Amino acid sequence: MLPSAVGGTITPRPGDSITCTITNTRRAAALLEISKTSSVISDPVNGTTNPKLIPGAVVEYAITVRNVGAGTVDASSIVLLDVMPAQMAFATGTPVTFTNGTTTSGLNTFNAATMVTYSQANGGAAPYTYAPTGTYDANVRGIRIAPTGTMAAATSATAQPSFTIRFRAQVR
Fold it and tell me: How many domains does the chain have?
């Protein structure tokens, strides 16, 4: 005999054949995937032709955030903290940039002056109150990027809102 309500009890009897069907309902929750890549842009020996990761080389970092979940991200709750490797000096002359993905993020217009802050503390920890100086600043130990607005939800496996943050540093 089968139960008439969810959570009921099934009591199998000899010879009964029981089949379970499980139906999943996608939760309307945000699920962020974050990846970071780096590429060598130039070096002092080879320039931009097949550059090597040697002292003086300029490296571009790209952090991509993608919402693969069916829910939006809470307003202004995305905060990226990135620790600058000890052998790198932040490129102050190249701005931190924000680029929307093919499916746009839905976040507010990016403003590096108000949404990017820097730390000189060991390990890139707070406070994020340091003002970088010079062309390459080795005192920058951490970068805090806090875009504002609400990140859109994924509407399918191919329509996943995303954005990429880029910044550069030099090998010391």
Answer: 1
User: Both tokens of residue 127?
Assistant: 């406070």
What are the structure tokens assigned to 72, written together?
Answer: 């939006």
In the three-class reduction of DSSP (H, G, I as helix; E, B as strand; rest coil), residue 113 is classed as: helix
Q: Is residue 128 a part of any domain in this protein?
A: yes
Does the pLDDT of residue 88 top 70, yes or no?
A: yes
Residues 6+ apart with CB under 8 A from 169: 58, 59, 61, 84, 85, 88, 89, 90, 91, 136
pLDDT tens track for 9-51:
777 788 787 777 766 666 689 999 999 999 999 999 999 999 9
**Strand order, beta sheet including 142-145:** 80-83, 142-145, 116-119
DSSP 130: B
Q: Is residue 158 part of a domain?
A: yes
The model's pLDDT over 106-125, given as tens digits with 9 standing for 90+, comes to 999 999 999 999 999 999 99
Determine the pLDDT at residue 25. 64
Residue 51 inside a domain? The answer is yes
Which range marks the domain in which residue 83 is found?
32-171
**CATH code: domain of residue 61:** 2.60.40
